[in-house]
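Marked as duplicate of an earlier ticket. Keeping the data here for the record.
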Amino acid sequence: MNLAASLPWWEILARLALAMALGIAFGWNPERAHKPAGLRTHLLVSLGSAIMMLISLEMYYLYNSATTSVDPGRIAAQVVSGIGFIGAGTIMHADGGLVKGLTTAASIWAVSGVGMACGAGMYMLAVAGTVVTLISLALVNRIIMSNGSGASEGKQKKD
């Protein structure tokens, strides 16, 4: 059985390498800020999501036929659910009603989407999604810091 029925080995490696690089880009700032989910977490989530997407696509090419129907979106949908579960685990409710970890959970979810885009070969979407997300986070952080509003993550009261 040819495990690379649809993609040459170099294409698979390129997709995984891009997922790794973009995962590192996502994890760089949290790592520098000594957050629990830093470089390794974001790299692994992105890479794992790309692998799951590649598996999904390969299963489609290997097993889809006139008698068997394979939906390549099923594994991708489960990745989204699973990452939501992992993200939920990063959210903490501290004493005094403080909520921490929302941005971390959201970044894990976003980097999973980037990894799935890499795995699907949607390079422009993956790179653009990473750039737009990181710029958005930097701009919002600057606005929060310049206003001194205290409305950043970890200072929000739960409802």
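See parent ticket for discussion. The helical segments are 9-32, 39-63, 73-89, 102-119, 123-147.
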